Amino acid sequence: MGSIAVQLRHVTRRLLRAPLFSAMTLLTLAIGIGANTAIFSVVNGVLLKPLPFGDPERLVGVWHTAPGLGMKIMNASPATYFTYKEEGRVFENSGVWNGESVSVTGLAEPEQVDVLNVTEGVLPTLRVQPALGRAFNVKDDSPGTPETVILSYAYWQRKFGGDQSAVGRRILINGRAHEIIGVMPQSFRFLDQHPALLLPLRFNRAEVFVGNFSFQGIARLKPGVTIAQANADVARMLPMLTDRFKLPPGFNAKMFQDAKFGPNVRPFKEDAVGDVGKVLWVLLATVGIVLFIACANVANLFLVRAEGRAQEFAIRAALGAGRGQLSQELLVESVALGLAGGALGLALAYAGLHLLTALAPSNLPRLEEISIDGRVFVFALAVSLLAGIFFGLIPAFRFGRGQLGAAIREGGRNSSDGRQRHRARGVLAVVQVALALVLLIGSGLMIRTFQAMREVRPGFVHPEQVLTLSLSIPQAAVPDPERAVRMHQEILERIQNMPGVSAASVSNGVPMDGNHSNDPVFSEDFPTPQGQIPQIRRFKFISPGYFHTMGNAILAGRDFTWADSYNKTPVCLVSENFARLFWKDPAQAIGRRIRESPGSPWREIAGVVGDERDDGVNQKAPETVYWPLLIANFWGDKVSARRTLVYSIRSPRTGTPGFLDAVRKTVWSANSNLPIANIKTLQQVYDRSMARTSFTLVMLAIAAAMALLLGVVGIYGVISYSVAQRTREIGIRMALGAPRQTVQGMFVRDGLLLTAAGIAAGLGAAVVVTRWMAALLFDVRPIDPLTYAAVSAVLIAAAVLASYLPARRATLIDPIQALKTE
Q1: CA distances, 740 to each of 488, 507, 721 (Å)
Q2: How large is the average pLDDT for residues 642-647?
Q3: Statement: residue 17 has pLDDT above 90
């Protein structure tokens, strides 16, 4: 230890005497280590940290499959909830939940807030207790009892100022009084939900039927129970559904048997994280490559520095210094630099995390868990040590006893360098170019993906001109469903008459906002075999003028009219891909009849409209059926109406000061108690669907730019050092009449040879590596000839420039001065 301490003092003095070398090395390492630490902190927070609940490894999401309906993943339902709760053998506790928005009145200005609807078993399953008051019990979750609510900590602070006497008070939710029974802890987080309130679902078991798979299930496994055992138990219970609960009108037990419902119990963490892991692991691998390139660059610098000390090492070896002692000295210096670079990189990572989380897509889960914690610190320390050892080993191996003896024979630093010295630096430069090529190709593929996604017709135009907001008319305020729809129409007409508004409509959701439902569709022309359920299709509920507002075309037939709703006319509209699926030609679909269940009346297709990329521009447009806002005999309801609707308002004034205020005043001129919520432009909804691709593209582009810069610097360094070492040779060549172009070409050729070798190796690696990116790409293949060729051309151009600059400097050497220096 004493010897190492002495060496550290010597290392510090040497590094201080070489400030340019030290600064370049530290900055290069800090960027590489900092980038890796920042991305790892995201991976750690999102993927590696356990969920913030007790024994999180025993939490599972209870999903299902229905291969008979073509569904690989299917939600839970009230029927499955009661069956698993009453008959389950493997769950310690279980529940179902969903999210929605409600209106809250009586607390200053009316507002619409997000809520988490839960059964009484959800919070015990999570092992979460309110910070104040109590959790829901069976009575709270039963119909016909006084209605209760639990506040989130943020809502409690915002509306009640943290007053503990809020527990026991009543607030109006959707026009009905609810008693506040508790306040959630400040630390409570649940997936990507940000609810202001928690409400009990209050299922009436006597009215539950098989179906309504629109809830998400959660359960806690009993100690020692495995996922496989849980799936087996769910599979045992699924056949009980048709025996224990009534069937929807027109359905029979065989239909559900042929749907082949199966279990899909999986770790709850998969629900929390989703498929974002693919992106994050790709990004971590990407910045890992950047660090490797940075280490190769630093290794080149170390080689140059060590070769400058070759005579010193040779003399010390001749005086008895062992190879191990000299190698240890080089490693101490490299590890010290690695740790110093790591410390600086950790500081950069801490600062960069704020930028990284700002750039991250808004739907990136668990953002609040991302931080520099102990695991991230250990990661940064390990990376720093490994980096220091990596770039220190190369000069340590380089200066074996054979090389030290050669150094004495060769003499001073100005001797022409041998092949072996060039080879080590050349190999490092080739590696840098190869890795830079891989990252540039990855970035190029993401650029092609982004371009392809931007060229997709999503089912709307000029989204920046469309303002969207949601309004809800509670049943308690307006019991009659037709009156609720007429109130929406009245508000809509007032908005349409606003100055500058070119179109406006309402619907249960706009493209890509996630507000939709999925149900089977029966076709009169293509009867489903007896006892079978047809494929599931997308359902949407819209007003007249919806497609005009979106800028989507009606390809055949007509749009809805308000009379269709009020007269309960049995009509619908379908998307182009739905029409082509059944009748090949959109025009042939007009007049055909479909229905949502065997017990419903047939409904005539009145129009065919362009497809909507409702699940995102990178997903296939779903076959969609559009229904009026008011429908008779729909899924067993005498009259079905949409009370919570999204208003879409197209105007060139969108985004200008005062436009939103004018919309608010217009809405409240019709009803001052209606809260306005979820205010955003359609452009923001569209950007959200592109957010993950944009984030990946930006991060890969930054990494690729860093890799390109480091690769070019590596080539520049090799050629520059070659020029410095061959000064005498250049002087002799030029003294003998060699043209400047010939001397320049000699060094440019060396640079191009290194680049060509790097490109050849990089192309082979890219073919393998980019296959891992296939899930992130859209409308472009991992092996895309255009991208590969363009990236190679960019690298060659950069290499020519990096080689030309030192080559040009070589031709400015005065032959007489070059010979005199020898």
Answers
A1: 82, 74, 19
A2: 91
A3: no
Task: Supply φ then ψ for residue 739, to 5 degrees.
Answer: -65, 150
Residues forming beta bridges with residue 594, ordered by sequence position:
523, 603
- Cα separation, 81 vs 212, in Å, equals 11
Q: Is 128 in contact with 145 (CB distance < 8 Å)? A: no
CB contact set of 286 (below 8 Å; sequence gap of 6+): 439, 442, 699, 700, 703
Tokens representing 760 are 């050849």
Distance CA 811, CA 743 (A): 7
104 contact partners, CB below 8 Å, separation of at least 6: 110, 111, 112, 113, 171, 172, 173, 196, 197, 675
pLDDT tens-place string over residues 760-816? 999 999 998 888 888 888 889 999 999 999 999 988 888 888 888 877 776 776 666
DSSP letter string, 139-168: TTTSTTSPPEEEE-HHHHHHHHTT-GGGTT
| Alpha-carbon distances of 75 from 1, 51, 79, 91, 812, rounded to whole Å | 62, 22, 12, 18, 74
Residue showing tokens 């790591």: 342
| Nearest to 664, CA basis, from 654, 651, 674, 652 | 674
Question: In terms of pTM, does the model score above 0.90?
Answer: no
| Rounded CA separation 150/118 (Å) | 11
Residue 783 to residue 763: CA distance in whole angstroms:
10
Hey, which bits of 67-141 come out as E strands? 71-74, 91-105, 111-118, 132-133
The helix/strand/coil state of 176 is strand
> Angle 469-470-471 (CA atoms, 0-180°, nearest 5)?
130
Comparison of pLDDT for 659 and 754, the residue scoring more: 659
Residue 479 to residue 643: CA distance in whole angstroms = 10
Q: Are 98 and 238 in contact, with CB atoms under 8 Å apart?
A: no
Better-predicted residue by pLDDT, 406 or 274: 274
Q: What are φ and ψ of residue 276, in 5° steps?
A: -70, -20
Q: Which of 617, 201, 642, 623 is nearest to 450 (CA)?
A: 617
Reduce the DSSP state of residue 672 to 3 states and report it. Answer: coil
Q: What are phi and psi of 218, to 5 degrees?
A: -140, 145
Q: Is 369 helix (H, G, I), strand (E, B) or coil?
A: helix
Mark residue 459 as left, alpha or beta (left: phi above 0; alpha: psi -120 to 50; beta: remaining).
left
Query: What confidence tier does 317 reach under pLDDT thresholds 50, 70, 90?
Result: low
3 state SS for 383-409: HHHHHHHHHHHHHHHHCCHHHHHHHHH
pLDDT digits (tens, 9 = 90+) for 672-685: 888 888 899 999 99
